[in-house]
Amino acid sequence: MRIYITADMEGVTGLVDAQDVQPGGRDYERGRQAMAEDVNAAVRGALTAGATDITVNDAHGPMRNLLPDAVHPAARLIRGKPKQMGMLEGLAPEHDAAICVGYHSRAGALGVLSHSFMGHEIEDIWLDGRPVGEIGLAHATAAALGVPVAVLTGDDGACEEMTEWDASVTTVAVKYARDRFAAQLRPADEARRAIEDAVASSLSAPLTPPEVAPDPSTLTVRWQSASVAAILLGIPGVTSTDSRTVQARGALPGLYRHFGVWMRVASSLTDQPPYC
């Protein structure tokens, strides 16, 4: 059994603030250790279920958060950037299931460290008219590859968002949002036991085949800056619906990769810190 783990950081056990998840932050080093511990809990669960091949993709920010010697030796780690598929680098049709560790809710939601990909630079995203963030796009892209998402871990807001997208996915809430930068935390040992048990149980049971998005799909993004939208119109296939909103049509997973190019353009045009 081949398992793929995409690991974000905002939804990791105990983390609530930018200082926990951004390099140079006061508590970042502790945060990256906590990230590894959540990932390792998922790896242990996968091994219990019989996984023989486990890939972990560091999917947060600089994508160099997980220290190689802190990751379970049974997993192969993908780290660094740029990556053509970003948060889903290395995901392939040969994988039997995907696991999302440390995920967070989309921009506008009152979840811990909620945003969509780029702090507050992205205000809204829609996939075929349906509001979506990192959770929904990851799920839809995995589905296009024929890979079901088995488990998602994060705060309760992220879990609710996943359940709204696909109720068959097992979710593990490791904290409960009190506000965007505050949460009631589950004890760390309890949270990681819950991750391990959920992964082992989910991968030991038959997985529901994922519902595949239409081909082609339409991805629409509203940016904070009209400048970003205007520049993106120079990319073939990108159209606008208003001064800050652009869209493109295409098949996933290619459309996900296309969106990654948009973010690289936006990053070159803006210099605003996330989570403000």
Task: Summarize it.
It comes from Streptomyces cyaneochromogenes. This protein is α/β, with parallel strands linked by helices and 276 residues long. The protein contains seven helices and twelve strands.
Element layout with pairings:
Elements: E1 2-7, H1 18-21, H2 28-48, E2 53-58, E3 75-78, E4 97-103, E5 122-127, E6 130-131, H3 134-144, E7 149-155, H4 156-165, E8 170-179, E9 182-185, H5 188-204, E10 217-223, H6 226-232, E11 239-242, E12 245-250, H7 254-269
Parallel strand pairs: 1-2, 1-4, 2-3, 4-7, 7-8
Antiparallel strand pairs: 5-6, 5-10, 8-9, 10-12, 11-12
GO molecular function: metal ion binding
Protein name: Peptidase M55
Binding site for Zn(2+) 2: 8, 60, 104, 134
CATH topology of the largest domain: Rossmann fold
Tally of separate helices? 7
Largest sheet, in brief, is: 7 strands, mixed
In CATH, the homologous superfamily of the largest domain goes by the name Dipeptide transport protein
When the domains are counted, the total is 2
Architecture of the largest domain in CATH?
3-Layer(aba) Sandwich
Protein name: Peptidase M55
Keywords: Metal-binding, Zinc
InterPro entries: DppA_N, Peptidase_M55, Peptidase_M55_sf
GO molecular function: metal ion binding
Question: Could you describe the 3D structure shown?
Answer:
The chain is α/β, with parallel strands linked by helices. It folds into two domains: 2-122 and 133-204, Rossmann fold (3-Layer(aba) Sandwich), CATH 3.40.50; 217-269, Ribosomal Protein S8, Chain: A, domain 1 (2-Layer Sandwich). Helices cover 31% and strands 25% of the residues. The chain has helices spanning 18-21, 28-48, 134-144, 156-165, 188-204, 226-232, 254-269, and strands at residues 2-7, 53-58, 75-78, 97-103, 122-127, 130-131, 149-155, 170-179, 182-185, 217-223, 239-242, 245-250. Strand 7 (149-155), helix 4 (156-165) and strand 8 form a beta-alpha-beta unit. It is globular, with a radius of gyration of 17 Å.
